[in-house]
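JOB MANIFEST
job_type = single_chain_structure
chain_count = 1
residues = 632
[input]
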Amino acid sequence: MSRQVKVLGLHAPHDARSARRLAAWSQAQPNRSAMTVPEENPVLTVSWAADAANVSWAHQEEGSFAITHGEFYNQAELRGFQPGSDPLGPEASDASIALDLWRREGAEGFGQINGPISISLWDARQDRLVLARNRRGVPPLFFAEQSDSFVWGSALKPLLALGLPRNINTQALDAYLAWGYVPSPWTLVEAISKLPPAHCLTRRGDETTTRRYWGPVQRPKLGASKSDTVDRLRATIEKSLRRRVSKDGEIGVLLSGGVDSSLILAGLVEWMDVPTVAFTFHYEECDGPWNEFEEAHELTQHLGGEHHRLSISPRWVADRLPELLDQYEEPFTYGIHTARLEQIRDTGPSTVLTGALSGYVPHWELARSEWLALLLRDYTPEFLWTVLTQLIPKSAKKRPKLLDRIETMARLAGGSIPELYEQKHVNTVVRDDKRRRIYREPKTYSRGKEARRARMEEILVAGESKHSFDQLMLLGSSLLPADHILWWNHRWGEANDIQFRYPFFDDDVVDLMARIPYDDPSKPLLREVAAQVMPRDIAFRSKVAQAAPIWQWLRAPSMRDLVDTYLQAELLEEVGLFRPEPVVDAVEEHMSGEVSHPWLVWTLLCFMIWRKRVMGESNFDDRDAPPSLFGN
């Protein structure tokens, strides 16, 4: 476990014994370092993996110090000094720059960091602990308060090993089933929270406060011509690539058949002449359009360079699912399609780039009637649409399609943005009616839904935008990336010693995309950039969404054995969260092909395995597990 624990800390103003025990554990582990404050009768211990490439530390003479996990790409800009006069020195670590930012600008200084990083900092001047998670949200920071002590770390399992209670957070459980992931600040463990992206936590004595240190600034949309916008977009993406790539060694790229990852690969080759190796996932025992190796191979043939097929089968998933959930630390849904990384690790590239987008382009999932409804919502009184919805007849058996569309537009124009966000199918994994049916406690559904709506309203208030499109974009970029899209690669990358980087999540790229006026949902401007570095027919080729064929794989014999083991009525009854009858019925209906329930079966399967692997009392039997500091 010591290898998994990048950062682990304890602040216990009244418990020097626990601080000493954690320090002693750290000192007994190979390649770990620790700081205690003060050295005698300590109130603070921070332990970190000294040999990890993406962990750095720095201290100042008065006793302040920082540990960073991750990396950022704009160090020179952050220092704020002219070349040759930088007091931090040309080789200043990320941690030393984070300390300097805090000293000069406080938490707001962290908002200038461009890159995935979390910060653990001790301010000796004010005896204050400071934790910060960057605005994109990876790496994560978990924390908990227990018995007048505060613990935090880069992973969830080490906090459980300290002896925290293991009760399930049912609001987080409903969020996971509804959305397919657990949004910050929740985790599935009631006692443990995740620091939300762009938030800073400070603790002095026994008082802990959390606040947002950065929020998106709504700036006017660009008024430039199409060609000027394309040129600006190209320059910004190229700058992002250069920030993330050195010319030492090969760079890996996860390549699908879509324009996003294709542009990353082509940009590396054509703009920067970087040696690359591409990897495309292939789903075995799959009937459908989701395998894209041949489409991706057209581009690699045009550019030259290696291209490998990463095959995933239901047998591979069944054999490794418990281990994957152990690495992920939360149950998951869609991320399985990026899990098979051992071939990348064995091939050689230690740095891999992906074409993941930031969530600032959500209008691709809107129908034209919904698009128009949002425009009407911003420029007409809300009560008109409420009245219109009530006037449309509901009793007619056959209504004209135009009337259906008008009703949809009226409902959306008169509803709330959180309602619209949850109604979109891409944001819903298990539908409301199915979740209501399976819970043992009916309030699990209603309380979960209320909690998610309240969380979305908090995000919208912080964003301050009054325009519906911008509000949808804000929700998409605040919720999806940190705890879902980026979590896949971050967790499995760490398990395989692979550093993932995300060029489209560069702050400059995200800010520019947010300022591009709403256009055709097929990403024409991005495709025009791509057409400059690849054949136009490839740049403008249509793309299917990336998703492993869970609906088919669950019926494979190897997966069926796993389902039968973990979704049996007796085990569901023992867990006490679900009604066994509707779950068992749904499993049988899906396996027989009578009714399709793939995501219900898959989410429950992953949850039940996660509960055993991560929450199990006997899970931490490693000799290097952190010491138990709290009674269970």
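[summary]
The longest helix spans residues 468-495.
The first strand starts at residue 7 and ends at 11.
exit_status = 0
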